[in-house]
């Protein structure tokens, strides 16, 4: 998959970048901005290229034969979006408790449509599991898929979110009209 990912990046002109992040084996990886179906392809390719083993949440609607098997092999965890949010947060915290090494990728906006703020589940997972948040990004203008600095939650969610938002203000989404202001 790494070679295929490198080929996809070569043919499309994309590059990977890691900003100030040491190699981390346990973290919540924000995937932002999330405005296009292409985001998943570029993010997943970048993680293969960077050799980061990742688990990610995806609607359980996509887990049908043969796609379900492919998604699981890529690191997908099916999510029933009809269940209460607290259950998903606790399930991810429990997953961290069960694994010495775990990187979970979560699209902070939760949708490709315009939102006014990030959903806070990624923050509650990181805070509850006592792991850092890696600021993953896709900059379509520069064609760079990467990971920014690690962010350690302090428990003051509003203050911490402002610092996270500051990082993403310089990142260019595929569809800027659907990106957070």
UniProtKB/TrEMBL annotation:
Record bears the keyword Acyltransferase: yes
One GO term of the biological process aspect: phosphatidic acid biosynthetic process
UniProt feature coiled coil, ranges: none
GO molecular function, one term: 1-acylglycerol-3-phosphate O-acyltransferase activity
PANTHER family on file: 1-ACYL-SN-GLYCEROL-3-PHOSPHATE ACYLTRANSFERASE (PTHR10434), PHOSPHOLIPID_GLYCEROL ACYLTRANSFERASE DOMAIN-CONTAINING PROTEIN (PTHR10434:SF9)
Any matching Pfam family: Acyltransferase
InterPro entries: Plipid/glycerol_acylTrfase (IPR002123)
Protein name in UniProt: Glycerol acyltransferase
Pathway: Lipid metabolism
Phospholipid/glycerol acyltransferase domain sequence ranges: 28-138
Keywords: Acyltransferase, Transferase
